[in-house]
Specification:
By secondary structure, the chain is of the alpha/beta class. The chain contains twelve helices and 17 strands. The protein has helices at residues 14-32, 39-46, 50-62, 127-142, 182-190, 199-209, 268-277, 281-299, 309-312, 315-331, 349-363, 409-417, and strands spanning 37-38, 66-72, 80-85, 91-97, 101-108, 113-120, 150-157, 161-162, 167-168, 194-198, 218-223, 227-233, 236-237, 303-307, 340-343, 398-399, 404-405.
C-alpha cells in the first residue's frame, strides 16, 4: 500500500535504528563490489533520505569501512562520487568442529577467505582439550591479520544444539556434550564474541547470502561424518521453536534397519553411511534421494543442494541418484517437478565459511542475531537472510511504483536531527 509504514517494535531506541540503517547501507556497498555505488543509489536502495545516507557514509568513511571508488558521470550537474566497501577493514573467524577434524577460516567483510587452517580433532576427547584446539586455531588465524579488528567467532558443530543459548545437546555419537555451554566456554578462552549453530545451518546461511546462488526455498543436505539438513524457507534459515530443526538424518526409513548412533534403527544417516562403507555408492545416493524426495513433498521446496566430504568424493553419482528418486516420485504424481539438485563446492569448507557468516551477516542487516544474541538486522527482525531490495521486518515499506523502500522512518529522522555518532560497526554492535 502506498505510504504504508510499519513502526519499529516498542522499546527500541534510536541507536539501534541508526545501526539498522548503517547495516542497510553496508549491505548495498558489499553487493556493489569494487565498482562501488553512489549515494543517490544508496538512498534509492535503502529508502533513506539523501541527507541520512550522507551522514551514514561519512561516518563509515571515518571508521575506515567505506572509501571512494572514483567518479561516475551524471545525467546533469557534477559527477557523482562512488563509494565502495573496504573489505579488509575487519574480519571474522569461522570454525567448523566436526567429529574427526577442525576447519577454521578467516574471512574479510566481503566474505572472502584470507586464511584457512585444518587439523585433526577428536570430538570425543575431554571438553578442555577440544576447546584448547579450537582456541589455538582461532588465535593462529587472528595472527594472520594482527592489526585488524576481528568481530567474533562463528562456530558450526553437529547437532542437535540450542542455537539461542549456545548450548550443545546430545550430539549424535557424543552424548557427553549434552548441556555443555560451548558458546560461553569458547568466548572465555578466546576473548571474542561467539555465536553457535549447527553445521548444516551455517552452510545453508552461506548459500542463502551468496550472490551466485538463486533465490527461493531450498534444503542443504550435508553428508560427511553424519547427515543433516539446513533449511531456508521464506527467506530465513529455519531453526524451529527450539532452534533444533533439520535433524534430517534421523528420520526412519527402515523399521528393522541397522542401529544408528542416535539409538534408533533404520535412520537415513545409518543407511547412507552403511552403503558407503560397503562400497555401494549408488544405494547411498538412492537412500539420500528418498529422504530428499520426502522433504520436497513435505515442504514444497524447489531446490536441493548437496554437500559434505562424502558427496564431494563423487558429486555426479550423488546428484544423479538424488535427482532420479525425486523425478520418479514426481512421475507418479507426487511433488518434485522442476526441482533442481546441485552441489555446494568445496566439501566441508562451506560449513566453516558459513560459520563466519554467522558473525558477519548481522553487520550487513542480513540475520537477526549476532554474537551475544543481540539483534543485528534492526527492530523486529529474527532470522531473515534476504539482501537489499528484499524487504525488512520492522522497517518502513513504501510501494509506489519505484520498488520497495526499506529504510526506517524513525532512522531517517534520527539521522537528520541528531549529530550523535552511530554505534560503531564492530564489537559494540554485535
Amino acid at each position: 500500500m502506498n505510504g504504508t509504514r510499519t513502526k519499529a517494535q516498542g522499546g527500541v531506541g534510536l541507536p539501534a535504528l541508526r545501526h539498522h540503517n548503517a547495516a542497510l547501507v553496508l549491505d548495498l556497498l558489499r553487493a556493489a563490489g569494487a565498482e562501488g555505488i553512489s549515494r543517490l543509489e544508496l538512498a534509492e536502495g535503502t529508502g533513506l533520505t539523501p541527507q541520512a545516507v550522507s551522514k551514514i557514509t561519512a561516518r563509515l568513511r571515518e571508521d575506515g569501512l567505506a572509501a571512494g571508488a572514483g567518479l561516475r558521470p551524471s545525467t546533469g550537474g557534477k559527477p557523482r562520487t562512488v563509494l565502495r566497501l573496504v573489505p579488509d577493514a575487519q574480519f571474522a573467524v569461522g570454525l567448523h568442529l566436526d567429529r574427526d577434524g577442525l576447519t577454521a577460516v578467516l574471512v574479510d567483510l566481503a566474505g572472502r577467505p584470507v586464511a584457512v587452517t585444518r587439523a585433526p580433532l577428536d570430538l570425543g576427547a575431554p571438553a578442555d582439550r577440544v576447546l584448547a584446539d579450537a582456541a589455538d586455531a582461532v588465535r593462529d588465524l587472528c595472527a594472520a591479520e594482527p592489526h585488524k579488528p576481528v568481530l567474533g567467532v562463528g562456530v558450526a558443530v553437529p547437532g542437535p544444539l540450542d542455537h539461542r543459548d549456545g548450548v550443545l545437546r546430545r550430539v549424535t555419537g557424543f552424548p557427553q556434550w549434552d548441556g555443555y555451554p560451548l558458546r560461553t566456554a569458547l568466548a572465555e578462552r578466546t576473548g571474542l564474541p561467539v555465536v553457535l549453530d549447527k553445521d548444516t545451518n551455517a552452510a545453508a546461511l552461506a548459500l542463502a547470502l551468496s550472490l551466485d546462488e538463486p533465490r527461493g526455498d531450498f534444503a542443504y543436505l550435508h553428508l560427511g561424518t553424519g547427515l543433516g539438513a539446513g533449511l531456508v524457507l521464506g527467506g530465513e534459515v529455519h531453526r524451529g521453536a527450539r532452534t533444533g530443526a533439520g535433524e534430517f538424518g534421523h528420520q526412519t526409513l527402515q523399521l528393522d534397519g541397522p542401529l544408528c548412533g542416535c539409538g534408533g534403527r533404520g535412520c537415513i544417516e545409518a543407511l547412507c553411511l552403511a552403503a558407503e562403507a560397503r562400497g555401494d555408492r549408488g544405494d547411498a545416493a538412492r537412500v539420500l534421494g528418498t529422504g530428499a524426495a520426502n522433504l520436497v513433498g513435505l515442504l514444497g521446496i524447489d531446490r536441493v543442494v548437496l554437500g559434505g566430504r562424502v558427496v564431494a568424493a563423487d558429486e555426479d553419482a550423488y546428484v544423479r541418484g538424488v535427482r532420479a528418486v525425486i523425478e520418479e516420485r514426481a512421475a507418479r504424481g507426487g511433488a518434485g517437478t522442476g526441482v533442481t539438485v546441485t552441489v555446494a563446492r568445496g566439501g566441508d569448507r562451506p560449513v566453516a565459511e558459513g560459520a563466519a557468516q554467522l558473525v558477519l551477516a548481522p553487520v550487513f542487516g542480513r540475520v537477526g542475531r549476532g554474537p551475544g544474541g543481540e539483534s543485528g538486522r534492526g527492530p523486529g527482525s529474527e532470522q531473515g537472510v534476504g539482501g537489499a531490495g528484499q524487504g525488512s521486518r520492522g522497517s518502513r515499506t513504501e510501494e509506489s511504483g519505484g520498488g520497495t523502500r526499506r529504510g526506517s522512518k524513525e532512522g531517517n529522522d534520527a539521522e537528520a536531527q541528531s549529530g550523535d555518532p552511530m554505534n560503531q560497526v564492530g564489537m559494540s554492535t554485535l
